[in-house]
Amino acid sequence: MVAPGSEDRPRQGRRPFRAQLNKLRWLVLSLVFLMLLALPFLAVYQSYVAAHAYDLMSPSEQHFYDFMAWLTGPITDNPEQDFNLVKGTTWSGTLFGLRLSDPLAVLSQIAAEHRVFTAFLLTGLIPLVATLLLGRIYCGWICPATFLYELNDNFAVVLRRLGIRLPHRRLDTRFKYLVLLVGLVLSAATGAVVTAAIYPPAIIGREIYYAVAAGGFGSGAAFFLVTLLFDLLVARRGFCRYLCPGGALYSLLGRYRLVRIQRVVGDCNDCAKCNAVCEFGLDPMRDGFGQECNNCSACIAVCPTDALVFRLTPRDQAPQGPGHLGREYKRSQALQSGEAGEGGRTEAA
Amino acid sequence: MVRWLRPPGSLAEDGFLSRCIRCGQCGEACPNRCIQFFGVGNGLVHFGTPYIRPRDKACILCMRCGEICPTQAIQPIPRKAKAILAKVRMGKAVVDKHLCLSYRGETCGVCYRACPLQDVALKVQRLEQPVVTEACVGCGLCERACIQMPQAIRIIPHHAA
What we know:
The complex is a heterodimer.
Chain A: H1 21-51, H2 59-72, H3 79-82, E1 86-88, E2 92-95, E3 98-101, H4 103-113, H5 118-123, H6 125-134, H7 137-142, H8 144-161, H9 175-190, H10 200-213, H11 219-233, H12 238-243, H13 245-253, E4 259-263, H14 273-277, H15 298-302, E5 308-312, H16 327-337, H17 342-348
Antiparallel strand pairs in A: 1-2, 2-3, 4-5
Helix pairs in contact in A: 1-2, 1-10, 4-9, 9-13
Chain B: H1 13-19, H2 25-29, E1 36-37, E2 50-51, H3 64-68, H4 81-87, E3 91-95, H5 110-114, E4 122-124, E5 130-132, H6 141-145, E6 153-157
Antiparallel strand pairs in B: 1-2, 3-6, 4-5
């Protein structure tokens, strides 16, 4: 279907690769979440293997053991050792021997100890560089909370279609910087990493482990449910936009990111689908990206004229005005030259 | 929560709290699954930090948690008796002679048999009466094994002593 306003330049043939990135992003988000689900089961299986006591297990434990043995059999014949290669969560983990940590974990730990512990600082280096180059890429592409928040957002769409009215308030996006600051100050004051208690991805990683291997969900799950309800009933993607301390840190780090989404004004038809789809409430149609953009590429995927592109530049474009394929621009051109549409197209080319 | 132990090789309590980022990898790595995690019940400062309650399940001193800890809140210590004796300070076992079967004249010796540092950390006299030495690291296997209820031997953690 051709979107309104794009009649004179319909999309032809295959879409560019960048339009498929959103699917790739969902694949990555799903894989990360699946991994967080799988790791506790693997850890339990490891402990069963290490016990060398198959005959002493209860029937249900034996079923679990058999199932895991069947599942992991093709991958490894030494689960006790091999599954040590991947451990932990996105908060801090070991990936095939490479230790990675959330920059927020590193910063909070420094605040709590009042000192830099170099070995731990180094584990946050790769995510830090990635954020400096790519912006809030963690928020859009990896965060297990994003996975659930976006599903929650889709659920809200279903509810709206059913006629249930959900408020959608806009709060101040700067509030999350205050949350970050308070979290760090509290960490410094108490000498304990308290940001871990209010940071959803850290909570999810822990809670999945608790639920699978430690006998049930803890209080973090309740906190996360509240944030889901907040997103549903108060503000769309509200926690990420307005409250998340990690999001605040990444926004700051990603302010001068090198990889940016930008609008090609000559191809834009002002359909505003990008603005509607943007989970972070940004304004791609009028070049309003800023430090909040997490390069999730949802706007690129939804754009009917492929007018949004990735570019290597440390700054956003200045507002370019209405898209050249849109009615507003054509009308203004017609008023200026008396020649409908044509002038604008040649100017753009 | 009255009495808990930190995983083997943990820093002293204040240092531990400022290092631990609550990632939970120690619990995930523990093959014995004896490491549990605090909820909000013990205060926000302890939230998400690992602990061991020896009567539930005690530490087998495999030292895997220290290997995986990203911040060395749990120090990496090689799994050698010498290194463990020198560096692990979870707590110290204390025998209640009024409760202990051996001290009451009924030869028991279960704690002695459970001790991974037998004759170093825990010695026995006649009637298998246990005597805890200064070398005890506080893994809690004796407390876990004690057949008395309440237990006649228990670990007093260093942060509580």
